[in-house]
Design goal:
heterodimer, A: about 300 residues, Rossmann fold, Alpha-Beta Plaits, 2 domains, B: about 350 residues, mainly alpha, D-Maltodextrin-Binding Protein, domain 2, four-stranded mixed β-sheet, about 5% strand
């Protein structure tokens, strides 16, 4: 079936007052894929997802979800989708089990309440009040409410924002389990490590447009360099130029971030670092800092936009 | 984007989601100790307070002063003291004017040099007019006026005509109004503010069931409120319920729907608790004053009466009083219930039309 697209979005536009949130966006997500929308805050990720979820009406464009359209098949679609919104506060006075049971009652078919609570590892909090849960536990409860209808397609909007590392990993494990069942996922995030780890493909979004699309590996490979070297000089660096750095062995690109800080994209780290140190020594320049990391989607974003992805 | 598609896969008389929504609503309420207090304890405390303030006291003692130190003043004072309902002081002119200014005495009796007696009082105050009548009567008798007709007194204190009988139905009406408007308005705006409404409409939940669940849980709670308040009033004050329980139930149901509709309407668009609170007060404040909770709405000028009588709380209070105190039939209660039903239909229709789900 060539039409096995879980989500198909064409020429989507949405404007709020004087802000264009989504500006001619196209997406195609095949069934069974975990697809990530990656971008900074305000890029249009949430608007795009909420249009796909049938919660926001687009100004222009065509949206087909699971082969149906919101205008004609809302009720049937809702039965087949699982949705976790950014910043929903569930009723604090209810218990975990009561909350899941309430959401289960909305769906004609779905999973058992006990199964879902066990899956999100909230068994011990089963009869505890929602108001007493930690941030990570609340987020897992939100996830439980999203999957209790046994959805074919799951939307997660910033599922781990604001969580501690351990809670994030717990959420990731849940997403992995859902993926393993062959279901389709659309998630938004501004954490590139999350996108790299969870997503089969990502679309990098900026100013309401897709500026890059592909597997995380392909996108990183498109930089032509697998590593990034950042260094900061102690004292003046006027004698150092982009060109002299680009001539070093293994360097694909070099740019000055600001002041005495530089960034190199590098294909062969083990050759570049000695060459860089030799070059600096020859120019009698002192290093204040030297860091290297494997290239990430963050570097792809920086490469495409010249800006940092994260707001931290 | 209707959620009320006829091909709903669930076709039971009462769906599981309606049961869940209503029970969740109910649980959320009873887990809120403050809400419990305002709903159950507050009207009872108010009834106790009013019951004590307005219980059947012996006839009130009226304070008056005779002004001056002349022998005439002593004679007038002695004549006035013959009435046990009068407390008479003899005061100098200075302290007398201070006493009437502060309201400590209601009437000054001033013997004049020419032998006349002058009464000084504020003729707009009923107790002052009463004091004048009592004092004049006692003084005239003391000076030898004889009664022409022999009279006797029999005191009537019938259940159903005391102030406590008047105020209990008013408190019940006020409570139905307050708990319905607050109960719906606050929780819905809170759910909207927390994006919970948006999350719920992202599921296949029926929106009609969601709204109905508020009315269901409100009615369930109201059974408790009504039984507690009326039970208390009957037990401690002997307030009667002369009409049928069915009639009382129908009045209360009509009232819940009318105020529930008003609460939904107020909550239909507000995004903040503050905004909704303002609207709720604007809606409720005039009714507290005008609709005859603590005193009869007949006290307001005739020109306002059509407006006052059209208010849902006036209709509720009129119907409750007619049913409970007089055991009135449907010819009296029916039109008030019909008016409440009209309010319910109009407000629910507008609320559904304007409701903001996200």
């Amino acid at each position: 079936m060539s039409g096995a697209l879980a989500v198909s979005v064409r020429a989507l536009r949405k404007r709020y007052d004087d802000v264009v949130a989504v500006d001619g966006l196209d997406l195609e997500i095949p069934t069974g894929e975990c697809f990530g929308l990656l971008g900074p805050n305000g890029a249009g990720k949430t608007t795009t997802v909420e249009i796909c979820e049938g919660l926001t009406a687009p100004d222009e464009g065509d949206v087909i979800v699971l082969g149906r359209r919101w205008a004609t098949d809302e009720r049937a679609l809702r039965e087949r989708l699982g949705i976790q919104l950014q910043e929903t506060q569930l009723a604090e006075k209810l218990t975990v089990a009561e909350t899941v049971r309430l959401f289960r009652s909305f769906y004609a078919r779905g999973r058992s309440i006990d199964d879902v609570i066990r899956l999100v590892q909230l068994d011990e909090k089963r009869d505890g009040r929602v108001g007493k849960l930690s941030g990570g536990q609340k987020q897992r409860l939100a996830l439980a409410c999203a999957i209790v209808g046994d959805p074919e397609l799951l939307f997660l909007d910033e599922p781990t924002t604001g969580l501690d590392p351990q809670s994030r990993r717990q959420i990731w494990d849940l997403v992995e389990e859902f993926k393993a069942m062959g279901r389709t996922l659309l998630l938004t995030t501004h954490y590139m490590d999350e996108a790299e780890r969870l997503c089969d493909r990502v679309a990098i979004i900026d100013h309401g447009k897709v500026i890059a699309l592909g597997t995380p590996r392909d996108l990183i490979a498109s930089l032509g360099a697998e590593h990034v070297v950042e260094f900061v000089l102690a004292g003046s660096s006027d004698s150092l130029s982009d060109d002299s750095l680009r001539r070093l062995e293994g360097v694909r690109a070099a740019r000055r971030i600001d002041g005495n800080a530089w960034e190199l994209r590098v294909s062969e780290l083990h050759r570049t670092v000695p060459a860089l140190l030799a070059e600096l020594a020859q120019r009698r320049l002192q290093l204040a800092e030297l860091r290297t990391h494997s290239a990430t989607l963050e570097d792809v974003f920086v490469h495409l936009t010249g800006r940092q992805l994260r707001d931290e | 984007m209707s959620n009320l598609a006829p091909d709903s896969p669930r076709r039971r008389l009462i769906s599981d989601s309606l049961v869940q929504l209503s029970s969740v609503r109910f649980k959320e309420f009873i887990r809120e100790p403050e809400a419990l207090f305002w709903t159950f304890a507050f009207p009872i405390l108010l009834a106790i307070g009013l019951g004590i303030a307005f219980r059947n006291r012996p006839a009130e003692i009226v304070h008056i002063a005779v002004v001056g130190s002349s022998p005439e003043a002593s004679r007038v004072a002695a004549a006035a003291r013959a009435d046990s309902g009068l407390a008479v002081e003899v005061l100098s002119p200075d302290s007398a004017s201070a006493a009437i200014r502060t309201g400590r005495v209601a009437l000054l009796v001033v013997p004049q040099p020419d032998g006349r007696v002058q009464y000084q009082f504020d003729e707009t105050r009923p107790d002052a007019r009463n004091a004048r009548l009592l004092a004049d009567n006692a003084i005239q008798r003391g000076y030898g006026r004889a009664d022409q007709v022999r009279v006797s007194e029999a005191h009537v204190r019938e259940r159903g005509s005391r102030y406590i009988d008047f105020v209990i139905p008013g408190l019940l009406g006020m409570n139905i109004m307050g708990s319905s408007i607050w109960g719906l308005g606050y929780t819905i705006v809170d759910a909207r503010r927390k994006k919970l409404l948006k999350r719920l409409v992202a599921t296949p939940m029926s929106r009609a069931e969601f709204l109905v669940s508020y009315l269901v849980s409100r009615i369930a709670l109201l059974v408790g409120e009504v039984v507690v308040l009326l039970g208390f009033a009957a037990l401690f004050f002997g307030v009667p319920v002369r009409g049928s329980v069915l009639q009382l139930t129908l009045i209360i149901l009509a009232s819940v729907f009318a105020f529930g509709g008003l609460g939904l309407l107020i909550a239909s668009r507000a995004r903040t608790i503050e905004g909704a609170s303002g609207l709720m007060n604007v809606a409720m404040m005039p009714m507290w004053v005008l609709s005859g909770v603590f005193f009869s709405s007949e006290n307001f000028p005739k020109a306002f009466q059509p407006l006052i009588q059209a208010l849902p709380l006036t209709a509720t209070n009129n119907a409750l009083r007619a049913s409970m105190l007089r055991g009135a039939g449907w010819t009296v209660v029916g039109p008030e219930v019909a008016l409440l039903a009209l309010w319910a239909v109009a407000t629910l229709w507008l609320a559904l039309k304007w409701f903001r789900w996200r």
